[in-house]
């Protein structure tokens, strides 16, 4: 698990918080700062969030899994 305690100290956190208070799409305000703090990985499972995770589909084709910061 990635230590996200530095999120609140990140330079972009205050901007994200201001956007959170004035936006209709609340969660999206924090996505960029979360990505920066977690170094483009899921904070829980540490999977890369860059489209590099693949699996085989039921039909045998390779499928790219679109991981997101909030997939948990």
Would you spell out the secondary-structure blueprint of this structure?
Elements lengths: L12 H10 L5 H10 L16 E3 L5 E3 L8
Antiparallel strand pairs: 1-2
Helix pairs in contact: 1-2
Can you describe this structure?
- The protein has 72 residues and is α+β, with helices and mostly antiparallel strands.
- It contains two helices and two strands.
- It has one domain.
- Strand 1 and strand 2 form a beta hairpin.
- It is elongated, with a radius of gyration of 15 Å.
- It starts with 12 loop residues before the first helix and ends in an 8-residue tail after the last strand.
What percent of the residues sit in helical stretches (DSSP H or I)? 25-40%
Low-confidence residue ranges: none
Strand order of the largest sheet: 1-2
Number of domains: 1
Largest sheet, in brief, is: 2 strands, antiparallel
Give helix and strand order, one letter per element, not per position: HHEE
- Determine the structural class based on helices, strands and strand pairing: alpha+beta
Distance between the termini: 13 Å
Name the overall outline. elongated
Mean pLDDT: 86
Find the count of extended strands (DSSP E, 2+ residues).
Answer: 2
How many separate helices?
Answer: 2
Structural key phrases:
elongated, alpha+beta, 72 residues, single chain, two-stranded antiparallel ribbon
Brief summary of the model shown:
The chain is of the alpha+beta class.
């Amino acid at each position: 698990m990635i230590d996200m305690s530095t999120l609140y100290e990140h330079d972009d956190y205050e901007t994200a918080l201001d956007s959170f208070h004035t936006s209709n799409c609340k969660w999206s305000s924090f996505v960029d700062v979360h990505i920066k703090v977690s170094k483009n990985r899921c904070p829980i499972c540490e999977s890369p969030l860059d489209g590099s995770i693949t699996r085989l589909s039921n039909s045998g084709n390779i499928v790219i899994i679109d991981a997101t910061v909030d997939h948990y």
